[in-house]
Write a structure and sequence with these properties.
The chain is an alpha/beta fold. It is built from 9 helices and 7 strands; from the N terminus they run E-H-E-H-E-H-E-H-E-H-H-E-H-H-H-E. The chain binds acetoacetyl-coenzyme A.
Amino acid sequence: MSRTVLVTGGTRGIGREICAYMKAKGYQVAANYGGNDAAAALCEQETGVKCYKFDVSDFDAVGAGLSQIEADLGPVEVLINNAGITWDAPFHKMSKEQWDKVVSVDLTSAFNLTRQVWEGMRERGFGRVINISSINGQKGQFGQVNYSAAKAGLIGFSKALAQEGARKGITVNTVCPGYIDTEMVRAVPEKVLDSIIATIPVGRLGKAEEIASMCAYLASDEAAFITGATMTVNGAQYIAG
Ligand code: CAA
C-alpha cells in the first residue's frame, strides 16, 4: 500500500506542485487549504488530489481535518508543512496583527500539524516531516521581519525535532526555497522583483518543480540518514554556511 502524504497549503504555488509530483510518484496525497475554494476545486480537477479545508493556525481545526484525512486515506506518514503567507511591511509600519497572523500561519501551524501526527509516526516507526522554510528565513529580508522570523523558526523546529525522531525512524528536515515563480513571488512589486532577480546567479526564478523534487527525495527511503538538515534550493542567491 502506498504511503499517505499531507501537504498543507497544497492547492496553489509550491504546495500544489508538490502534490502533483508526489501523486505521480505513486503516493496517496491529501492537500490542505485555508480558504480559496475555487483554487481547491481546480486543483482537485486537474491533479486528482483530494483537498481538505481547515485553518492550519487553529489546533482543534487541524485535529478535525487530520481525522477526516486519516479516515479517508489512512495515517499520515509524510507531512509537508508548506502552508505560508506573507504580509510585508517595513518594521516601523508593521502591526501586531501582521506579526501574529504570519507567525501563526507560517510557524505555529507546523506545531499544530506535526504534534498531532507525531505519536502515530513514533508508534509505526516511520515518518517524514518536511518543513518548507525560505531563503528569507536564512538571510532575512527587508520588509519581512515577521516572515523571516517565522521561517527561521521552522529551521530550529526541524533541528530540535530531528533529534527526537531519529531513533523512531522519523526524519525531520527543512527545505529553503529561494524566489520561485509562484503567485506569492509575482505579487512583489515588479521593480522590487526585478532587483531581486538580478541577485540570483542562476539568472532566473526557481521552478516549483525544483522544490517538489527535493521534497520527494527527502520523503524517500533512500533519504533515511538525512535528518535535521537544511536543504537550500535558491540558484546560489544565498549560500548558507
Ligand atoms: N533594502 C534597503 N532599503 C529598501 C529596501 C531594501 N531591500 N526595500 C525598500 N527600501 C527602502 C526604499 O528605498 C524606501 O526608502 P526611502 O524612504 O529612503 O525612499 C523605503 O525603504 C520604503 O520603501 P517603500 O516605499 O517600498 O515602502 P513600502 O512601505 O511601500 O513597501 C515593502 C516596503 C513592502 C517591504 C516593499 O519594499 C516590498 O514589497 N519589498 C519586497 C519584500 C520581499 O522581498 N518579499 C518577498 C515576498 S515573496 C516570499 O516571501 C517568498 C519567499 O519565501 C522568497
